[in-house]
Design goal:
Number of helices: 8
Number of strands: 9
CATH architecture: 3-Layer(aba) Sandwich
Oligomer: single chain
Shape: globular
CATH class: Alpha Beta
Radius of gyration: 19 Å
Bound molecules: zinc ion
Number of domains: 1
Largest sheet: 9 strands, mixed
CATH topology: Rossmann fold
Order of helices and strands: EEHEHEHEHHEEHHHEE
Distance between the termini: 46 Å
């Protein structure tokens, strides 16, 4: 199927007068040579953008995924412990990224405990995100949507990630914030020019990406998260799907296929795009 980015801003029921209508000047499938930093709370939060990431990677954009926590709490398996789960989820993340064409060098994990980002030292965690923004200098930053004209409710860790990332973007551009990075670590203040927000309300999303050509990669990458989306959630049996009960493979792939969003029978991923200063990322112009 021909790859297109479908712009649906003014369709009935999609978008509101309050929504930011800024759009990428160049359609996403034509992006080339951009550096993209996706900030997430857990290993697998990037899954909802995997089709877009595979597309961007295929078109010679450089992608980095920065995850705040190790994901070391996400299990219902009574035999699992935090250290093992931390290692398992790192490996799952790396395997999923490999399917998308990304290497381990493109994965950064800040090592915070799963479920406790809101209790972490905000100044410290924002400083770490600022460090990577200044080091990577992304042309586009992808993040949980902090909301547009109101705060979006996300579950724990996700809502913290949304706001910490927004605050870090703002701090990164001020040379006297986290100035030690500039004085001692050879970094410069940096302003992120463009944003793709995922995970927000559908009515706030202002464009979508046709992922038809990358659907198989998205589903295959999703199948690497066995500790999360298979019976491994309750009873982890290792990283090889063949070691799981009969029928596991079919049920996992069916579950992943059911999660795909469609618009006019085209598989899509939806985002809120924003271009401009960080102060305006979450609100329309005010008097
Ligand atoms: Zn998550």
């Amino acid at each position: 199927m021909k790859m297109i980015t479908t712009i649906l801003v003014f369709l009935v029921g999609f978008g509101t007068p309050e929504t930011s209508y800024s759009q990428p000047l160049t359609p996403i499938e034509q992006w080339e040579g951009k550096t993209i930093l996706l900030v997430a709370a857990h290993p697998d939060d990037d899954y909802q953008s995997h089709g877009t990431l595979a597309l961007l990677n295929n078109n010679k954009n450089k992608i980095f995924i920065l995850t705040l926590t190790t994901g070391n709490v996400g299990t219902r398996d009574p035999k699992m412990n935090k250290n093992d789960l931390s290692k398992i989820r790192r490996q799952e993340q790396i395997e999923a990224m490999k399917v998308l064409g990304l290497s381990e060098q493109q994965y950064i994990n800040l090592g915070y405990d799963d479920g406790r980002v809101e209790f972490a030292d905000k100044e410290e965690i924002i400083g770490k995100i600022v460090y990577y923004i200044r080091k990577i200098k992304p042309d586009v930053l992808m993040s949980f949507d902090p909301g547009f004209n109101y705060a979006v409710w996300h579950k724990s860790d996700h809502r913290a990630a949304a706001y910490l990332t927004a605050d870090a973007v703002r701090a990164a551009e001020w040379r006297l914030m986290y100035e030690g990075q500039i004085i001692h670590q050879n970094l410069n203040a940096y302003s992120v020019p463009e944003f793709l927000f995922y995970g927000g309300n559908i009515k706030d999303k202002n464009f979508e990406v046709d992922i038809s050509e990358y659907l198989d990669k998205k589903i295959l990458a999703g199948s690497k998260y066995l500790s999360q989306w298979s019976s491994g959630w309750n009873n982890y049996l290792g990283s090889d799907l063949n070691d799981y009960p009969a029928g596991e493979k079919d049920s996992l792939f069916n579950r992943l296929k059911k999660r795909i969003k469609y618009q006019n029978n085209i598989p899509v991923e939806r985002f809120r795009y924003y271009k401009g200063i960080p102060d305006g990322m979450g609100r329309e112009k005010r008097d």
